[in-house]
């Protein structure tokens, strides 16, 4: 037996000898109600650009962060009204709860660092074949102005791929304050590439960042 943490062990005998435990299964063993989020959600949704060694999940119960077999397990707490999670079936035949595409997008735009930074987030979003822009705008209604500005820019850039209606973009524009807002960092060295419509500074030229999102 291999100890994961207090009260949790992984079998290393018989057919499990020499087999690494699936990190998703470890998280579910610790928190049976786990809903995978951020980069872990992007992975389960088939859109992760980089596969990291951190598993992020929402759990109603109090679970402390821990590390096992080189993987960092980072439980999160859900706040505010949220969309219902999805049930995703993996090629291995296991089913896991994961935040929806729209909820994942808003979560990642709220905490861009938890999404692996702008480069990883935008390259990952390029892998999402569908997303409901109107629903995403609705989810963001109670989010910070900066989140709505980031969302607006992304939805406008992905307008054709995701068939984002004009009224969803218009509602986001109208909901913004005076700004300015920052996609990544307002601290030095701060974002410096200005997008007038969204009152948003980007960390790289707009055309370059748009290519990450559409390639």
Task: Give an overview of the whole structure.
- This protein is of the alpha/beta class and 215 residues long.
- It has nine helices and eleven strands.
- Strands 5-6-4-3-8-7 form a six-stranded mixed β-sheet. Strands 9-11-10 form a three-stranded mixed β-sheet.
- Strand 7 (86-89) and strand 8 (95-98) form a beta hairpin.
- Helix 3 (101-110) packs across helix 5.
- The mean pLDDT is 91.
How would you summarize this macromolecular structure in one to three sentences?
The protein has 215 residues and is α/β, with parallel strands linked by helices.
Measured as a percent range, the helix fraction is 25-40%
Please tell me what the overall shape is: elongated
SSE run:
EEHEHEEEEEHHHHHHEEEH
- Specify Rg, calculated over alpha carbons: 19 Å
β-strand percent reads 15-25%
Please give the number of β-strands: 11
**From the structure provided, what is the oligomeric state, counting identical versus distinct chains?**
single chain
- Give average pLDDT, whole number: 91
Low-confidence stretches: none
Q: Number of DSSP helices?
A: 9
SS class: alpha/beta
Largest sheet: 6 strands, mixed
Distance between the termini: 45 Å
Q: Strand order, main sheet: write it out.
A: 5-6-4-3-8-7
